[in-house]
TrEMBL record:
<keyword id="KW-0479">Metal-binding</keyword>
<dbReference type="Pfam" id="PF01149">
    <property type="entry name" value="Fapy_DNA_glyco"/>
</dbReference>
<keyword id="KW-0862">Zinc</keyword>
<dbReference type="InterPro" id="IPR000214">
    <property type="entry name" value="Znf_DNA_glyclase/AP_lyase"/>
</dbReference>
<keyword id="KW-0511">Multifunctional enzyme</keyword>
<keyword id="KW-0456">Lyase</keyword>
<feature type="domain" description="Formamidopyrimidine-DNA glycosylase catalytic">
    <location>
        <begin position="2"/>
        <end position="118"/>
    </location>
</feature>
<dbReference type="Pfam" id="PF06827">
    <property type="entry name" value="zf-FPG_IleRS"/>
</dbReference>
<dbReference type="InterPro" id="IPR012319">
    <property type="entry name" value="FPG_cat"/>
</dbReference>
<dbReference type="InterPro" id="IPR035937">
    <property type="entry name" value="FPG_N"/>
</dbReference>
<keyword id="KW-0234">DNA repair</keyword>
<keyword id="KW-0378">Hydrolase</keyword>
<keyword id="KW-0863">Zinc-finger</keyword>
<keyword id="KW-0227">DNA damage</keyword>
<keyword id="KW-0326">Glycosidase</keyword>
<feature type="domain" description="FPG-type">
    <location>
        <begin position="238"/>
        <end position="272"/>
    </location>
</feature>
<protein>
    <submittedName>
        <fullName>Fpg/Nei family DNA glycosylase</fullName>
    </submittedName>
</protein>
Length: 277
């Protein structure tokens, strides 16, 4: 699942590479991804891209008084190609392109989805807040103005597992399964602990870990080619996806825990007092 550090790097790349280019043609192969029927992507032909921005895990491509908002969902991405494209489309290891935006200067943006079900979405709107998921976004921990007060408001006194709250976009924007594992490991907090039972010192650790992990990852991904961002993310993980490996902090064994249809990787020594979940 794309999360804020990688989506931020993608937005930065597109802001530099696509700005000033005109949309010459649009080819949508999977019409379920078009979420605004009155203003389809085809209405953008002839328009010039003026910039790109991130909203949580969504990409906004600015086109004057309108925007193309791309909801990446669980497995969506934007592939940038220049020149010859047939080789990429023919590669079985590449996720399929569900829509292609041909740009001036012999470049193209291909909207891809590597999932077994389509989660990618395209919205043509005058304001990104017209996209329901964007309108509901909570505060973004990567924002320089993000505060402990905003964090406490997101957690509240809820009797809900903290890992679930971290991934809840209406509470905190941009965090998914991988970075929630990394944040909880850095904060030394169990993924199944409820927000309501966390003391002030634990909340402070969690706040600091949330900010440090996300902002550190955003800085680390900056400048990496966008087709290498997933690999860079995987390589940087401390516990997520590391079941059976040694914890880089204490040397204990990273374990996996599945609950409510989701999974978490964690270090029992660092996070649960040596007790396996």
């Amino acid at each position: 699942m794309p999360e804020s550090p990688e989506v931020d790097a993608l937005a930065g790349f597109l802001d530099a590479a696509a700005s000033g280019r005109q949309i010459d043609a649009v080819d949508v192969l999977e019409f379920r991804i078009v979420k605004t029927r009155a203003t389809t992507p085809a209405t953008l032909i002839g328009r010039t891209i003026t910039g790109a921005a991130r909203h949580g895990k969504h990409i906004e491509l600015k086109l004057g008084d309108e925007s193309l908002v791309v909801s990446l969902g669980r497995h969506g991405w934007i592939r940038w190609v220049e020149g010859e494209r047939d080789a990429i489309e023919a590669d079985p290891d590449q996720p399929p392109s569900l829509a292609t935006f041909e740009l001036s200067g012999d470049a193209a943006m291909q909207m891809t989805d590597a999932g077994t079900w389509v989660s990618l979405g395209l919205f043509v709107v005058r304001d990104p807040a017209e996209v329901p998921a964007v309108a509901k976004l909570g505060p973004d921990p990567a924002d320089p103005g993000f505060s402990r007060a905003a964090f406490d408001a997101a957690l509240g006194g809820r009797r809900k597992q903290i890992k679930a709250i971290l991934q809840e976009q209406e509470s905190l924007a941009g965090i998914g399964n991988a970075y929630s594992d990394e944040i909880l490991h850095a904060a030394k907090i169990s993924p199944v602990a409820h927000a309501a039972v966390l003391g002030d010192e634990e909340r402070q650790r969690l706040f600091e870990a949330t900010v440090a992990v996300l902002r550190g990852a955003i800085e680390a991904r900056r400048g990496i080619p966008i087709d290498q961002l997933k690999a860079a993310k995987v390589a940087a993980m401390q516990v997520h996806g590391r079941t059976g490996e040694a914890c880089p902090v204490c040397g204990g064994t990273v374990r996996d825990f599945t609950f409510s249809g989701a999974s978490a990787q964690y270090c029992p020594t660092c996070q649960t007092g040596d007790a396996p979940l």
